[in-house]
Amino acid sequence: MLQRPSGGAGHGTAATDRGLMSIGAVLNELRDEFPEVTISKIRFLESEGLVEPRRTPSGYRKFSPQDVERLARVLRMQRDHYLPLKVIREHLDAVERGEAVQLPVLGRPRDGEPAPAPSEAPTAARICRSELLAAAGIEDATLAEWESYGLITPLEDGAYDAEAATVAALVSELGRFGIEPRHLRVMKAAADREAGLVDQVVAPLKRHRNPQTRAHAEARTKELAALTVRLHAALVQTALGVRLP
After folding, report:
1. Is pTM, for the whole model, over 0.70?
2. Cα(104)–Cα(75) distance, rounded to whole angstroms?
3. 3-state SS, residue 160
4. Which domain holds residue 194?
């Protein structure tokens, strides 16, 4: 549980500043629960609009207790739900507006549950190589190694989609257990086969003359992708004889 810094009941700027934290203090606060977090990661989350710390006249970041708690929620949602930053940002912004919202649920809703409203949000943000390195807290040589194994692939213009940051975080996390990138080639091959199966199913919709039918192909692709992810997780759990939380 995060310990919020205590502040006095004084007046003026000095009293207000006593309740604020430097980025180094925030890092120490978060590392108990998130040992892999880095200052570069916090700066990246700020650049993506996940947190907006105050700035001193000299440009130093100052984080409020609410900023620290928001960062912790972002990191938990990444760690526990593997959600893209865009989805996390939209969810937290809705919560702060007082809206009753739930985390996105993968796959088809259960019987009796309302279907989620179609999203009108823009497509996921693209990030450059330096931003990806900062988000993952890795060196350029490490990213190059992951790319050589096909775990992360840049787009044609050299940028990366938002999911690359999620993949990088998971590869780093697996590395803590001694699982090296070369060991993950089998998982990449399995993912490519699953993606090929989904593409095969939706291909007729993509080629249809009706524009609405072609547009429906994207929604069907997302639904099938979510279902394959859930099935993959269930099969792994069954094979290992464990149940994930």
Report:
1. no
2. 16
3. strand
4. 182-245
How do residues 70-83 score in pLDDT, each as one tens digit?
A: 999 999 888 877 67
φ/ψ of residue 137, rounded to 5: 65, 40
**165 and 234 both lie in a single domain:** no
7 part of a folded domain: no
DSSP state of 182: G
Q: Which of 202, 185, 126 is nearest to 158 (CA)?
A: 126
Number of neighbouring beta carbons within 10 Å of residue 85: 23
1: in domain: no
What stretches in the chain show pLDDT beneath 70? 1-18, 82, 103-125, 244-245
pLDDT of the residue at 61: 92
Using alpha carbons, list the distances in angstroms from residue 86 to 47, 56, 57, 74, 194: 12, 28, 30, 11, 24
